[in-house]
Amino acid sequence: MTTFLLVVHSLIALALVTVILLQRSEGGGLGIGGGTGGGMMSVRGAANLLTRATTVLAVLFIGNSIILAVLAAGTSKPKAVDTSLAPAVAATAPATPGAAPAADPAGAPAAPGQAPVLPGSLPGVPLAR
Predict the structure, then answer these.
(1) 60 within a domain of the structure (yes/no)
(2) Has residue 23 been placed in a domain?
(3) How many structural domains are present in the chain?
């Protein structure tokens, strides 16, 4: 339904732009006016027709915009954040109250007697030599 209304909205907008450009302004419209007499429709009749067409198309455009806004507001519901792919955060606190951590994440040296943790390696897993 929304796709159909968007297509109709686009067609109304295109028709509205066309009708506005065809209207006579100070310099004359696109192909309207300039001649007198024997046409099927007089210049004044064409101006009245274009004015009415502009009014009808503008009302349709505004109405369709309101309908699309109501439909868009009705379909927006809050979505839950999916945390299933988030990496598990390991506890960084030391196991014993007085012990120092294996290494600082900024690259500080490890405590005496412990191997340093290199970027990309897991703490507590020995490096292959």
Answers:
(1) yes
(2) yes
(3) 1
Q: For residue 22, tell me if it sits in a domain.
A: yes
Per-residue tokens: 82 = 């999916």
For 55-107, write each residue's pLDDT tens digit: 999 999 999 999 999 998 877 677 778 888 877 665 555 556 655 555 455 55
Of 121, 90, 125, whose CA–CA distance to 107 is shortest? 121
